[in-house]
Design goal:
By secondary structure, this protein is an alpha+beta fold. Helices cover 44% and strands 15% of the residues. It folds into two domains: 94 residues, DNA polymerase, domain 1 (Orthogonal Bundle); 121 residues, Cytidine Deaminase, domain 2.
Length: 246
Amino acid sequence: MFNTSYLIADLPNPERPRERMLRLGVEALSDRELLAVLLRSGTRGKSVLTVAAELLQKFDGSLKRLASAQLCELSKIHGIGPVKALELNAAFTLAKRLTLESCIQQPQMTNPENVARYVREKLRQREQEEFHALLLDTRMRLIRDEVITIGLLDRSLVHAREVFRGAIKEACQTVIICHNHPSGDITPSQEDLKSTRMLQRAGQIIGISILDHVIIGSSLEDARFFSFRQENLLLKEHEMKENAPG
């Protein structure tokens, strides 16, 4: 491993990040080297590898933290500046969109892990609670992600007409509901449980089933999720019939 204090021009040609990438492939490069390729140049007396290493160190070596950094945070780091901050932000935004696209293209959304991964990318670091309805086609692929409420803590105020309006318009028969808990505690509240069952019963009347209700935290580092389906908290068909009106 070479010393990052060297200037790129001082390194043997095969050891320079771009040349190593061309010779060995992108997977052979470390996070620091990949950042160096994006940054292109360092500052006077400081190699781009040193700038890349210091950039990672600033965010505790975490690419997730670096990817979520604001432009003002990045541009304050010595050797970055406004232009490089914009370029880094653009690169990480493209990576985020690629993740979302790959989630959307999953052949099925019946797996709670896939649902949680999609929702986490969508709602990560949100400071307010957001309640979404994922509209699915007959192959359980995502048709559309609809925001139902933002900043609404009283789940009893989530109306079935808002949840199912888009589903009726799209003529889809299956919906997954999901929301985040900015506090980080993914345990469902009693209101979460009541509203889920209310939506299940309402959906049964109009012929649209609630496949799952997934809750995530808002922390970048927290991969946990709570699935009502996985925890057997969804009403069974006979239970919905027992409580059906009339």
